[in-house]
Design a protein that fits this description.
- The chain is rod-shaped.
- Helix 1 (9-59) packs antiparallel against helix 2.
- The mean pLDDT is 90.
- The protein has helices at 9-59, 64-145.
- It is mainly alpha-helical.
- The chain has a domain at 9-110.
């Protein structure tokens, strides 16, 4: 029986490398997206604290300098929230692009793997036919060598 040799093996190796690299890049993009989500949540918590400080300032006596400080802090954090949301949306878009690139690389690798599986199956079937033909030939030669059981 001949040894199986897949002619597209170098292509499979390259595609496996590309798929692995795309998976790593996608994982990094997911990590970056999660970090931006956490950053946005922290910024929203700070905005909520500034809002609470503004509302508390309106309950008692009015101090203009203190309220101005709270209002500037609130505006600064609100702007930071908008920026954090923009960064998070950009990170999500990048993550989705990386996901598509990974899925495409994975599909290409799976095509090669399916081709290899079909080639292996075909090789195995051919080897089985060849082996059966050898057994048939051996049995035919052996039967031809034997003397007849009954003589006439």
């Amino acid at each position: 029986m001949k040894r199986f040799r897949f002619p597209l093996r170098p292509v499979a190796v390259v595609r496996a490398h590309h798929e692995s690299r795309a998976r790593e890049v996608f994982a990094a993009a997911v990590h970056a997206y999660v970090q931006t989500e956490e950053n946005l949540a922290a910024t929203r918590a700070r905005v909520a604290q500034w809002e609470a400080a503004l509302f508390r300032g309106r309950e008692g006596s009015f101090h203009a300098a203190e309220e101005t400080h709270h209002l500037h802090g609130y505006r600064r954090e609100a702007a930071a929230e908008v920026e954090a949301e923009r960064v998070m949306i950009a990170a999500r878009d990048a993550m989705n692009e990386r996901r598509e690139a990974y899925l495409e690389a994975h599909r290409k690798l799976e095509v090669i793997r399916r081709l290899e599986a079909k080639a292996r199956t075909s090789h195995r079937a051919a080897a089985n036919r060849e082996e059966q033909a050898e057994f048939d030939e051996f049995a035919t030669r052996r039967a031809a060598r034997k003397e007849p059981l009954f003589s006439s």
